[in-house]
Structures are given as C-alpha cells and as structure tokens.
Amino acid sequence: MDIKNLFDFKDSSKIREKLIEYGFAKTFQDDEVILNENAYIKAIPIVTKGTIRVLRAEEDGREILLYYIKPGESCIMSFLGGMHQDTSKVKAIAEEETEILFIPIEKVSSLIKEFPEWLDYIFKLYHKRFEELLEVVNAIAFKRLDERLLDLIQLKSEMAISKTIHVTHEQLANELGTARVVVSRLLKHMEDEGIIELGRNKIVVV
C-alpha cells in the first residue's frame, strides 16, 4: 500500500503516518462488493489503488450509478453514515482490483481534532460528490438514454486509460437503471454508426 502521493496537505506526511497507524488495508477483486446497502458503517474507506463504483438500488432490483471513488478519495456517504451511526444508503463495488485503507469510525473525530486540514478534505469531498449527484439528476431528467450510455462508456474508457473497456451489457444496464435489452439495442446502433466496436464482454471506443 502506497499513500505517499494521495494527499496534497501542507504537511501530509504526519497525516499519512496517522492514517497508517489507525487504519487497516484490504484488497478487493473486480466486481467484489465492498459495502452493501443497509449495512452498518464501521470504517471509512480511502482508496489507495483502483476504483470503486457507488450505486443506489431500488426494491425491484434496479440500480443506478451515482459516482466513482478514485485513489486519494473516500465515500462521503460513509463519513455521514458512520458519524451518525446510521446504515449505508448505497452499495459500493470494486470496478477493478482495488486497495482500500479503512479508518475505524471512532478514529475519524480524532483526525479532525488533530488535523484541521482533514476536515477541509471531507468538505471538498462533499462538494465534489454533491456536484456529481447533480450531474446524475440532470442526466436522468434531460438527457436521452443513448447519450447517458455513451457518456458512461467514455468515462469508463478514461478511467481505464484505454479505448477498450471490459464490461457486460448487464452491468451497463444496471449502472444506468434500465433493462439489458435496451442497452444491447443502443450498443448495436452505436456500432452500426461506427462509434464503438462490440466484442465478448468488451467494448472498443472508435
């Protein structure tokens, strides 16, 4: 686990030392569930490597992607839920092999008292997540599904730093909160338009 370049605080070395002292590391494989909805939050995750996708599920099984958590970032939902001894309102899944440093919830207050810049880190995360959630609402309200699908494919391509992304039609449908057959039809249309090339559980952005 390497967290030396994850933070840009004025004196981040002391915070890093304290995070390592308080925390414990764990590795999750691609598509492994990190946190389920309604589970009690006992530790705050900080991604040190890889990516987490955070989703909201409905009772009928449909899901929708809320945002991604990248290295150096945490889940503001976990902060809020953990501090108020509440259960998780979201599901967190590893997008790829992901390493996480978990900070026990009882240590979060100590970090805020000892390092005021840690509170600034939390507020910045809150601001970023709020903007991302507004983008999700805006996309659902004003964008066509094919536009949202293409945006999601391009985002995954950027995160993978590759024009080839390994993903199933089912996963894309889940993240967009729609049916697999609808996504498959839209993907075929995009392929006919020359925007993408489809393969077995993969998509190439042309």
What keyword list fits this structure?
Arc Repressor Mutant, subunit A; alpha+beta; elongated; 7 helices; Jelly Rolls; 206 residues
3D architecture notes:
There is one protein chain. This protein is an alpha+beta fold. The chain folds into 2 domains: 12-141, Jelly Rolls (Sandwich); 144-205, Orthogonal Bundle (Arc Repressor Mutant, subunit A). 45% of the residues lie in helices and 24% in strands. It has helices at 12-22, 76-83, 105-114, 116-142, 145-160, 169-176, 180-192; strands at 24-28, 33-35, 43-49, 52-57, 63-69, 91-94, 98-104, 164-166, 196-199, 202-205. The strands form 3 sheets. The chain has a 4-stranded antiparallel sheet with strand order 2-6-4-5. It has a 3-stranded antiparallel sheet with strand order 1-7-3. A 3-stranded antiparallel sheet has the order 8-10-9. Strand 9 (196-199) and strand 10 (202-205) form a beta hairpin. Helix 3 (105-114) packs across helix 4 (116-142) and helix 6 packs across helix 7 (180-192). The protein is elongated and about 55 Å long. The two termini are 35 Å apart.
